[in-house]
């Protein structure tokens, strides 16, 4: 199915056997998924930007980001989704996308992951009630990549976002990237959000759904 981003027709590969996944349905109908976030990306990402898409799913953020930036590091631990994402990237010859079939966490280790074949998949310790196939998957940290540049980070990892951020401590301190963070709107998570912002001198603004825009406060 083709989806048009900024005048570019992009062919997406998706799971034709899955009718329950919202992202899958959106692609099947040729619709842009989470257009509000795509419009926000356009405000902060440019052709010099290095971007991280953590929790890439089928690439509905990775692909438009690749069309507006220098490099995208894209992370998706579910093998089936990763294979489809890889096909999309290769078919459309998006050579500025670097793909990682990994969990992103606070340390490098094997973790139990609930593979559902859709965006509802997640770490078993955070989403134990999902009906999926639990597998051991390799986790890495953002800091382990030793990036030479990092301008923008999107995180959508179904409850594991604080592990992701803890594993990106050095990267955040060094590059102070803009962050789009999905975190469920609970008192516990809002407290963690405030703690993060105080620690790194960031501020946050609510976008929509469970999404927040985090930016470094330049006090100069």
Can you characterise this structure?
The protein is α/β, with parallel strands linked by helices and about 220 residues long. Helices cover about 30% and strands about 30% of the residues. The chain contains seven helices and 13 strands. It has helices spanning about 20-30, 35-45, 60-65, 80-90, 160-165, 170-175, 185-200; strands at about 1-5, 10, 50-55, 70-75, 95-100, 105, 110-115, 120-125, 135-140, 150-155, 180, 200-210, 210-215. The strands form three sheets. Strands 5-4-3-10-11-13-12 form a seven-stranded mixed β-sheet, with helices on both faces. The protein has a four-stranded mixed β-sheet with strand order 6-9-7-8, with no helix packed on it. A two-stranded antiparallel ribbon has the order 1-2. Strand 1 and strand 2 form a beta hairpin. The longest helix has 14 residues, at about 185-200. The protein is globular. It starts with a strand and ends with a strand. The relative contact order is 0.13. The mean pLDDT is about 90.
């Amino acid at each position: 199915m083709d989806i048009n981003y900024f005048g570019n027709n992009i062919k997406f590969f998706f799971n034709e056997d899955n009718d329950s996944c919202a992202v899958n349905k959106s692609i099947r109908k040729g619709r842009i998924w989470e257009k509000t976030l795509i419009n926000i990306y356009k405000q902060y990402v440019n052709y010099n930007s290095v971007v991280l898409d953590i929790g890439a799913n089928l690439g509905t953020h990775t692909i438009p980001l690749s069309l507006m930036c220098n490099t995208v590091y894209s992370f998706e631990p579910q093998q089936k989704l990763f294979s489809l994402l890889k096909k999309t990237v290769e078919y459309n010859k998006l050579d500025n996308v670097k793909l990682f079939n990994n969990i992103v966490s606070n340390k490098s280790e094997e973790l139990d992951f609930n593979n559902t074949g859709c965006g509802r998949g997640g770490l078993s310790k955070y989403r134990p009630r999902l009906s999926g196939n639990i597998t051991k998957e390799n986790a890495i940290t953002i800091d382990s990549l030793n990036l030479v540049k990092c301008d923008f980070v999107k995180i959508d990892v179904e409850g594991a976002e604080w592990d992701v951020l803890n594993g990106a401590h050095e990267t955040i301190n060094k590059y102070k990237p803009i962050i789009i963070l999905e975190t469920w709107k609970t008192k516990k998570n809002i407290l963690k959000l405030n703690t993060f912002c105080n620690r790194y001198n960031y501020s946050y603004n609510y976008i929509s759904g469970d999404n927040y825009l985090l930016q470094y406060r330049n006090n100069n």
